Amino acid sequence: MMKPIRIISIYSILVIYIMLSCQLCYEFAYAESELTDIKLFSHRGFKTKYPENSIESIKFLIKAGVHGVEIDLRTTKDGHIILMHDETLGRTTTGNGLVREKKWTDIQSINLKGSDGSKTSSKVPDLTNVLSVIKKYPSFELALDLKAVDAVTVAKMVVDADVVKQTQFFIADPLNTKLAKSITRLHPDLRITIDMLGWWKIEDVPLFAARALDTNILFASEWFFPKRGFKGLKQEGISVIVYLWGNHKLEKRFQRAAKLGASAVSCDDPLKLLPLVKPLLK
C-alpha cells in the first residue's frame, strides 16, 4: 500500500511545483507590463558614482540599462572638443584656468576629480572617444549640451561617426533659430531638443516653437512644468524630456512627470528609477 501513496505524493508535489511556476511567470509578466516606456537620461555622465562627464560613467550607464546620457561640450585653444561643463577647469579637474586657453595636450596631462573633490585616475574625454563608444550600442542615446563649441563642427563629427540616430543636440534658447537650422540642414535625421524655459506658461508657444524649428523634442525643467501637462503635445507627435533636479523624493517626482505625459526623464541618479522603466535593450 506504500507505493500508491508515494506515487500520489510525488504527483502532488509536481502539481504544486507547476502551479507555483505558473504563478511566478504570471507575476513576472504582470510586473513587466507595469513598467513604463519612459526613457532615462543621466545628467552630466553619472556624477553620483563617477567623475562628472567621464567616459567611465558612460560605459557604466550602458551596462546598467540606462537609455541615454547628457554631456557638456567645450572647445580647447587648438580646436579639440572635450567633455566639460564649466568654462574653468578647477571644479572638476586637477587643472586650473579657462578651457579655451588650454591646448589638448594640456588637458591630457590632468585628471578628473570625484564628487568629493579628490583626484581620480580618470582623464578628460574628448567627443571622438564618446562617439566611438556609443556606436557599439545603437539603442543608447546621447544628448549634447553645446556649451562652447561650433555646432556645425560637432554635427559633422556626429554624421561622420554614423551615430546620427543616437544623438540629439540640446539648445537652451528657443529663439535661437539660426543655431537650430545650422544643425538640421546638415543631415535630415539630426535631432535638436529645445529648452522652452518659461515659455511653457503660454499654452500654444511650445507647439509653435517645435513646428517653427522643425523638431519633435522639447525640454522642460521641473520648475517650469505646466499644469496642463504634455499629453497634448504627445498627440501632436512631440516628445518632452523633463529634468528632475536633485535626488530627494525622486520616485514620487518621476511618477508626477509620467502622469503629465513626459516621454523621457533626465536626472543625476537614474539608477533609482530603473526599477520603474523598461531598461535599455543592448
From TrEMBL:
<dbReference type="GO" id="GO:0070291">
    <property type="term" value="P:N-acylethanolamine metabolic process"/>
</dbReference>
<keyword id="KW-0812">Transmembrane</keyword>
<dbReference type="GO" id="GO:0006580">
    <property type="term" value="P:ethanolamine metabolic process"/>
</dbReference>
<dbReference type="GO" id="GO:0006644">
    <property type="term" value="P:phospholipid metabolic process"/>
</dbReference>
<protein>
    <submittedName>
        <fullName>Glycerophosphoryl diester phosphodiesterase</fullName>
    </submittedName>
</protein>
<feature type="domain" description="GP-PDE">
    <location>
        <begin position="38"/>
        <end position="277"/>
    </location>
</feature>
<dbReference type="InterPro" id="IPR030395">
    <property type="entry name" value="GP_PDE_dom"/>
</dbReference>
<dbReference type="Pfam" id="PF03009">
    <property type="entry name" value="GDPD"/>
</dbReference>
<keyword id="KW-0472">Membrane</keyword>
<keyword id="KW-1133">Transmembrane helix</keyword>
<dbReference type="GO" id="GO:0008889">
    <property type="term" value="F:glycerophosphodiester phosphodiesterase activity"/>
</dbReference>
<dbReference type="InterPro" id="IPR017946">
    <property type="entry name" value="PLC-like_Pdiesterase_TIM-brl"/>
</dbReference>
<dbReference type="GO" id="GO:0005886">
    <property type="term" value="C:plasma membrane"/>
</dbReference>
<feature type="transmembrane region" description="Helical">
    <location>
        <begin position="7"/>
        <end position="29"/>
    </location>
</feature>
